[in-house]
User: Fold this.
Amino acid sequence: MNALLKLSRQIDALTERIGKAALWLVLVVVLISAGNAVMRYTINYSSNAFLEIQWNIFGMIFLSCAGYTLMRNEHVRIDLISGRFSKRGQTWIDIFGIVFFLMPIAIAITVLSWPIFIHALQSNEMSNSAGGLIVWPSRLMIPAGFFMLILQALSELIKRVGFLKGLCPDPTDKRNALTPEEELALAIKKQKGGA
Amino acid sequence: MTEFLIANMAPIIFASMIIFLLVGFPVAFALAANGVVFGLIGIQLGLLGPQLFQALPDRIYGVMANETLLAVPFFTFMGLILERSGMAEDLLDTIGQLFGPIRGGLAYAVIFVGALLAATTGVVAASVISMGLISLPIMLRYGYDKRLAAGVIAASGTLAQIIPPSLVLIVMADQLGKSVGDMYAGAFVPGLVLTSLYVVYIVLVSIFKPKWVPALPLEARNLRGARLLLKVLTTLVPPLFLIFLVLGTIFLGIATPTEGGAMGATGALIMAVARKRMNWKLLKQAMDSTAKLTTFVVFILIGARVFSLTFYGVDGHLWVEHLLVNLPGGQLGFLIVVNLLVFFLAFFLDFFELAFIVVPLLGPVAEKLGIDLIWFGVLLGVNMQTSFMHPPFGFALFFLRSVAPASVKSSDIYWGAVPFVFIQILMICLVIAFPQMVTFGLDKGNGVDANSVTIEIPDYEYDNSEPQSGTEEPTEPQGPTR
Assistant:
């Protein structure tokens, strides 16, 4: 079990690193997209490559953050019923969900999307629009993203079993983090106090 | 047994979806799992071809290549940055001083600022928190009724949900297969009408219960005359600039809604830097929240599309259609039932779930009944907006609670919201009764603003991006609705 928990920590660290890196893509895609609009309007220049980069980055954001969001426990749930269960009960639900819902789907999608990527890579497939991008990188994102999701799901599974056995803290416990709303409230209060 | 299964596959899948969701595991995966389980059963029973799941990667690819959804992170990011730029605080201070001297003035200021903020961003939390921290204490100090003060703040905050550029409208347009620009144009007038209804309510209160909404005494105002006027004008510049940057460019056809969102986000960044409110920590936080929100939203959509693969495969959409088309009362009967349904579902589903699971099932039926889908979308938008303020789960109430002083009890907040929930219901009825409110901006070829231009540009963009996805299956957002 200890070896597994160690593995889980390593996966978490990897997911954290990928997630934190992918955050910057948000800023990048905002600037690219704003740039596209400005360029088209001012110098009447528009490039399919740049239009495609936008949604390529969009895909990269949500696929590379899938595991990260899972780790932070931010995928929305309906806790109408489970909210009344004990912490252990909720942990059992998560174990059930990871094993029977999440894992099979993520594995199926990874396996099914891999050959599509290989095909795009081997045939050097280009996008249909003039001046568009080469296709395989975007085809690679799906299996890669879902593979990361499988890894993170494994880590979450280990942590939950560990929690039930009393070997590690509650993995869904929000670590010392303030929500953005709380941060905003603090900022406004500070400003009012200082003024 | 097998025959029973085959004959009732669609209702069984639907019922089990509800059970899967209620288990309490993240919605995205529960939905997808439901689709896969019944897909396998369907293949076993010979209802579905064995090729069913081959379409899965393409469905996800279609979600990726969807330029409309890209607007979701843009407007989220914009809202998060904007809430830190100090714009809301400035507006509330100055507009409060401007309206303060009249009875109910602070409440009008809250509504006005709420609408103004709503027209720049699609995020509820920011307005509610700023108003709860800045206006609520002032209102309480000068003797406003607690419930009224709380209610008007919560309700004005939710205007962001219906006044463009709202996230609800983007997702709604995507799911109904309409252009976001049209949805924005259609929601504009209803958004203004709703704002006026709030104002009318405050007018009525100030006539019948003047003690609830006293005017500010003179000493509460540190600016007067020309200086106040100047301050008001300068404070209005940033929001008006942002409104032009986002809505102006979209309505004039200069930018797609996605690009409008990107420009708005850039504008918000510039403003935050100019006001020296920007730092790395804040930027990272905004990106972090944006990335996580985008991820969970897109994953619900992915889950919904895996589900629909099976559900539509067994003609589930026809089953839903049969149920709803034959409702008594035709169009009106359908609209009433649907609105009641959504109203009650909204007690425990949030709007992303509603939009991705329920709306695609309702859209085709509405279309078949001859209902304009933009009208339908705006109607559901107003309906879902209500879910942000109805007790006890409304997000706006929750945010307000987190910043309201302890002297305001939770029950004050709940009761304060109730009159506004009734105003919402009235508004839903008005939209049903007067579809022109929505469609009028769309039908007119010319004349009013440049609304008609909006219709062309997003479509052009879609045409442009569609072939790029390189999939056989049409990958437009509305895939499941066909």
